[in-house]
Amino acid sequence: MGTLDWLVLWATTAFIVIWGIVRYRGAKTMDGYLRGGSSLRWPTIGLSVMATQASAITFLSVPGQGYEDGMRFVQFYFGLPLAMVIVAKVFVPIYYRMRVYTAYEYLERRFDLKVRLLGASLFLVSRGLAAGITIYAPAILLSSILGWPLYWTNIGIGFAVVLYTVAGGSKAVSQTQKQQMIVVLAGLVATGFVACGKLPSGVGVDDAVSLAGALGRVNAVDASFALNDRYNLWSGLTGGLFLALAYFGTDQSQVGRYLGGRSVTESRLGLLFNGMFKIPMQAGILFLGVMVFVVHIFVAPPVFWNGPTLDAARASADGPKIALIESRWDADVTARRDAATAFLAARDAGDGAAEAVARDRLSAAQAQMDATRADAKVAIAAAVPEAETKDADYIFLSFALANLPAGLLGLLVAVILAAAMSSIASELSALGATTTVDYYRRVIRPRASEGRTLRASKLFTVGWGVVAVAFATFASLLDNLIQAVNILGSLFYGTVLGIFLTAFFLQRVGATAVFWAAVVAEALVIGCFAFTDIGYLWFNVIGCGAVMFGALALQRALPLKGPHTAG
Amino acid sequence: MNIPPDIAREDAPPDDGPPPFLRRWRNVYLALLIAQTIIIGLLALLTATASG
């Protein structure tokens, strides 16, 4: 990174952090700190909700996913718009009517304390772990590619977020997220233009789409059905709906965002704003990854995207073996480029038969490259045993480093930091709020004064920040990072959603029935994860269904007390 | 909706309705779902076209 890049990076990041601290410091009441004094308008809520979900992982991992796997990941979001409608129509008015700080407060009013604490505990465990990944994901990549020390990158990101989250509370989180989201969108659009500009002369965006389509990268909608297929139309519409319902309806890091709204209307419009733009935004980011893929048909890509690990393998005793694979790779790259050129020429000439032949040749060349890359990963794992061989998360950042002009690269790193901080801020704010409201003020110190509770809340936020940084420091690179976060969420979300939907729609079910049904459902979901190969989006459906049917069956079968007398 | 009356407080911020030109929340929800169906349809069309 050059001087201009550093200047852009520091100016952007420092402005957002300092503005968050100075502008919103000094919330004196619990309501001001935890709910931002209920003053937010819908554009702020909408951008804040989007920024909370779209972490740095989204902007690093998703283009890599587009490059490797095409656009099919977008189907993950197909259930989200309907979920936004259901949350806006059903969940929001209930939370507002009850004036709750956290979603779990509602569970005690509807059921009893043990169900509230179960819901809060499932949230704290899943979100506490996810917060670690949210910090770790950008830190590991920035440290690896830019040479920043991982330990200090983790601490630096965590410290900056804790500073303005504790200083300004929920309102500072939402307002800084609005600016962070604007930086993020501007950075992505600029990078998109650069990627399209890197296509060789004579290859337009439509040619790029055809090439990507011929190589199976434009696979945004797959209507075939398979339970073990992670992303298709049906898992997206069903599992994605349940996951989004659970995340936006019951996860405090999201509930906390829209509970800060000035009215039910503002909260609803903020959520619907998210429902409107989420699919186009994700499709755009995946498409960016696909464009990077097409650019690398004409510009030779490395056989392995994590440069420092590849260098370590080259320098090891297995160096000659790696060199051999790399020379094979160079030949594969040339073969694919020639096949692509022939494909485009046949397409331009309108020669259908030649196009079909060229398409087959292109697919064969790609298959050869995939095989060579797989061999390279095996060789690298043998040469550098401690190395992580999943490199998809490094693709986008490597592309940016090699291709973005001065200033824009700094902006992109600022985007990554902004996205990381915006998600972590929501998570820490929600973890602190849930610990305060559902444990400290309810169980530990019910008689504590407002001032003392406020101080405790800030301390809990700092504490969760320390836990997240510690987890990030000791974590190792997991699968593809965005999938790791979503798999972790899916292990818990179905059960929590089942508890809430039982509360809303099954009036006859009482506390004890739903509590035990939830415990069994959670065990069932973890069992499915450990012992089956069911796609993880289905865990949300399984967990939710198991809670609702289990609670109904228990309520009917056993002589349990009714909903309002249970306890 | 199962909300015990003792916890449905009256001091909650008001629902002052959707933007006037959409009149009712139902219209807003429908507009969103129709727009998203069109977007998914366009993505399906892109998939079919690009795959040849």
Describe the structure.
- The complex is a heterodimer of chains A (567) and B (52).
- By secondary structure, chain A is mainly α.
- Chain A contains 21 helices and no strands.
- The longest helix of chain A has 48 residues, at 150-197.
- Chain A starts with a helix and ends in a 10-residue tail after the last helix.
- Chain B has 1 helix and no strands.
- By secondary structure, chain B is mainly α.
- Chain B is rod-shaped and about 50 Å long.
- Chain B is 50% helix and 0% strand.
- The longest helix of chain B is centred in the last third of the chain and has 26 residues, at 25-50.
- The interface between A and B is large, with 53 and 33 residues.
Low-confidence stretches of chain B: 1-10
Largest interface, with counts of residues having CB < 8 Å to the other chain, equals: A-B, 53 and 33 residues
Q: What's the helix-strand series of chain A?
A: HHHHHHHHHHHHHHHHHHHHH
Shape of chain B: rod-shaped
Overall pLDDT metric of chain A: 85
- List the total number of helices of chain B: 1
The proportion of residues forming helix of chain B, as a percent range, comes to: 40-55%
Structural class of chain B: mainly alpha
CA-CA gap between termini of chain B: 49 Å
Largest sheet entry of chain A: none
